[in-house]
Amino acid sequence: MGRDWWRGVMLVRWAIGAARPGLPRARSAPTLRTAAKSWTIDRLYSSAELKEKPDMSKFLVEDIRNFSIIAHVDHGKSTLADRLLELTGTIDKTKNNKQVLDKLQVERERGITVKAQTASLFYSFQGKQYLLNLIDTPGHVDFSYEVSRSLSACQGVLLVIDANEGIQAQTVANFFLAFEAQLSVIPVINKIDLKSADPDKVERQIEKVFDIPSDECIKISAKLGTNVESVLQAVIERIPPPKVHRKNPLKALVFDSTFDQYRGVIANVALFDGVVSKGDKIVSAHTQKMYEVNEVGVLNPNEQSTHKLYAGQVGYLIAGMKDVTEAQIGDTLYLHNHPVEPLPGFKSAKPMVFAGMYPVDQSEYNNLKSAIEKLTLNDSSVTVHRDSSLALGAGWRLGFLGLLHMEVFNQRLEQEYNASVILTTPTVPYKAVLSSAKLIKEYRQKEITIINPAQFPDKSKVTEYLEPIVLGTIITPDEYTGKIMMLCQARRAIQQNMVFIDQNRVMLKYIFPLNEIVVDFYDSLKSLSSGYASFDYEDAGYQTAELVKMDILLNGNSIEELVTIVHRDKAHTVGKTICERLKDTLPRQLFEIAIQAAIGSKIIARETVKPYRKNVLAKCYGGDITRKMKLLKRQAEGKKRLRKIGNIEVPKDAFIKVLKNTN
Amino acid sequence: MVLPAARARGLVAAAKAAQRRRRVDSRGGSPSPEPASRRAAVYVHWPYCEKRCSYCNFNKYIPRGVEEAAMRNCLVTEVHTLLRLSGVRRVESVFFGGGTPSLASPHTVAAVLEAVAQSAHLPADSEVTLEANPTSAPASRLAEFGAAGVNRLSIGLQSLDDTELQLLGRTHSSSDALRTLAEARCLFPGRVSVDLMLGLPAQQVGPWLRQLQELLHHCDDHLSLYQLSLERGTALFAQVQQGALPAPDPELATEMYQEGRAMLQEAGFRQYEVSNFARNGALSTHNWTYWQCGQYLGIGPGAHGRFMLQGAEGHTREARIQTLEPDNWMKEVMLFGHGTRKRVPLGKLELLEEALAMGLRTDVGLTHQVRAKVLYTISSS
User: Fold this and answer.
1) Inter-chain residue contact A623 with B298, CB threshold 8 Å
2) Chain A within 8 Å of B341 (Cβ-Cβ)?
3) What is the pTM for the complete model shown?
């Protein structure tokens, strides 16, 4: 028995867990990458074989459509998804399927937007039963890699645009992602019920910007359900079925994964070829690890197990993976002994924004550690390295896909785990092309990535430095164009393009150094355009940059925590800001403190904290002498002691003020 | 109390004589036949005030009624005792400070001076200073003090801005101050000093400099500029602590001081000490004694002294503090002849440190004479 006995015990545990409604379900927590909400239906059954398993073999490839909904924030992606699910009977219409607002403030503000779960919709059209797989995509370009992987499982997209707001920056970014993946794009103009709606104008914008004929736009009101049925019909008519073959060996794309504390990793997969069923032995092309499939099924939108999944279909798979890093997005799964060519485009998550994270109080270290572990359990794209700072104590250096990703992570720590953290100003990964043979030997490569400023190699040992850049899209009413162009110029951005998308709206494209937008670009843009400009960006590789390492000196001693890598053009501004911030926070000492920003031996900015003076101007007569002598002695001893140590005590508050991401 | 006519006439004559006294040029005054150990300045503390000033943490009391006769007797007794103990033969200056010594009767001042003159030699040209508060010193009273032997006045004017005076808890107005100053100059020409404070909460450089400018039109040959020190236990300290008043800005105070120095220099004043300015040689002999490490006797409640004892106890210079509280001090004086509460013998290093710290406050620095005096003190102990 042995093994069977053990399985029996586990099944009982699952059943108990699943049947108790009050029990916390790891799966129901929104995952970071998929940052989101679920439909309101409670999953009462897990894999327990209580429900009749649908036979997926009857859905032939030509009856399948795989598509995504992409939209700028608040343009109605989730509401449309709700309607589609209702129309296909996937969820009950009588239920209150009102869009659940995003929980996190940053999600609402920044448009990481709601992510609907992937769902298989069964829909009859002209007497034929279709399987429509609505494949979710994360709502922000920070996750553009994930978006591209999700899109690679689709053949078409619904591009939802608000009839009032028109095309926004994220609409453009989303469109081009779909366009590059050669997907059919169905423009859907939503919210036509609004008084201020101008669907005709939006049609013209779509024609101008995306070159899509205006008669291809579908005008709907997802909120009222107006014309939503025609969206489903367009999906069937305009999106081609996947080009896959059931007879070929299994080739499945992992496009999402989540972690369930009872069942392990649940991988969302799209089958490009072949069939997968329970008991199959599968291999990850990335890790080359082998797993036995415990369960397969479709998402409608909650997991419903099936006997098999066939080519062209989308569903989930559980195979004893214990960690989300074992089911990385973009990975290809194939049958043991039947290796296939992995699907193109896989890459490991590559953090683009780094920040130090420290507990406000060191006694909170362990709590914070466990909170970070829990959050990263569902998000393999956050890299975590232990770090420590003299000033801030023990903490971590975390790598994020982008700024927003970082903010979401931080807010979730605060809101869900009640953790109070100090997040340092974000930095970006720079690169250096080494010229020193010794260093090349040491690093075993010619091009190195620099995350910690302390590792910044000297110019004499380097051919060139590189900084990450992004292609930014800004869409704004034209009256703000001048101000925005000034802002971009101040951020070292280079204009690529400027197009009027209608009479009074302009689309600007700029190449930005990533580090110029990581701190407060978005807020500046929003405030100088009264909130009307939208911004989005995509990775654009690296470019040569004149980078320098800037030291911050206190009376000539470099402060390790404050070493910064900056662009030469920005060194003065950045140095001055840091010096000023320090000046405001450093307590006065009995001696003068020179705060200097230096590049090599050259001082580029200076502030002075004047010494604290014990009023020597006060009178001193017969009765004051004893006291005066005591004061003088105490002062002299104090000065001696401080000088001897040779460093200035920088209070933690001062460091926090300088290092903290004040954004 | 009314002075016997003959005696009063004598005192008036003495005061007139005092006013005719040759001005002291600098350090030390006229050559003295006595060695330094036999010479001293005498400080007399009058511990009473009408009202508490918001910045003051001196040893002072707001009495219901002062038993002035008892206080006078005790001051006189202590003068005799300490002069005897110190072996001092010659007193070159007497300073009545407080508290508010201008609240004391001229008779008391006269009695103390007489006691000094009885136990030691009080030369006719000795400097006798009285601290005077504008409101408690009408012209007639100032004349009486002059008659009692006072020949120099130090007026606690503090500010020429009525709001600031109110903030400081002073009972006078700027016009009171200027009137008192004018009267004092008539009575003690060339021998009137005024105090002006700087670095008050919310005080600005420009307006303060205008005050100083105005003061220059009215003042005599001596001026003291004091930066406000917020002392724990004062009303002002508490107000700043609670945030009711802004903390004085030391940068502004520095600016006031520097600008003020320049202005006074322009007006012909010599800055002979950190906070003290004089023209026409009108330096304060008494205070100069402190900075030159001369001997001084502290008489009265809480007074400080520094002198060498004569006789059995050897030649060690001591720092002495009298009992603070007036009633206790008086009891002690009546029992033991003096109210010294604390005696600290000063070591060689301390003496030199004091000589250095005090010397550096003056424009002459640490002079050979002072060094020699201190070294003599050390070698003779």
Assistant:
1) yes
2) no
3) 0.57
